[in-house]
Amino acid sequence: MIRGIDHVGIAVKSINEAKKFWVDTLGLKLSHIEEVPEQKARVAVLKVGETTIELVEPTSADSPIQRFIEKRGEGLHHLTLQTDHLAERLKSLKDANVALIDEKPRLGASGAKIAFLHPKSAHGVLVELCEPHE
Ligand code: ZN
Question: What are the pLDDT digits (tens) for 84-96?
Fold first, then answer.
């Protein structure tokens, strides 16, 4: 079952620069910053009510976030929906011919299990499914 929006990911060149708008000007609260080596990225988690915005900064030239910024500039990168039973859900999406980037869950920020669906199956949106760490 999809439980809600977990977070929205925004690709930024620099968390320090982006913070000036999102935190200092807009007034969102910075929860924490963490390294996500699997995605070659650093993530700043901003609290927005029940959900969060993640500012995602590449930490290496071959990071997928770096390639995204080079192609399309900074901006909305992905939408993350919270689900239960992620592995089973991926299986049933595959059976329904949804294009998957990850066929199996992998480790994301905060110990959550995550997987990405291909934008071509989601009307141009990079969708991340996440099963939060208990
Ligand atoms: Zn994310």
Answer: 999 999 999 999 9
User: What's the CATH number of domain 2-131, 1.10.630.10, 3.10.450.50, 3.10.180.10, 3.50.50.60?
Assistant: 3.10.180.10
Distance (Å) from CA 111 to ligand 1 centroid: 12
Residue 38 C-alpha to ligand 1 middle, in angstroms?
Answer: 12
Q: Where do the structural domains in the chain lie, given as residue ranges?
A: 2-131
Give the distance (Å) from ligand 1 centre to CA of residue 114: 8
Measured CA to CA, the distance from residue 70 to residue 95 in angstroms comes to 34
- The CA 7 to ligand 1 mean position distance, Å, reads 7
Q: What is the pLDDT of residues 21-49, one digit of tens each?
A: 999 999 999 999 999 888 899 999 999 99
Rounding to the nearest 10 degrees, give the CA dihedral for residues 126, 85, 2, 40. Answer: -30
- Let me know: does 99 contact 78? Beta carbons within 8 Å: no
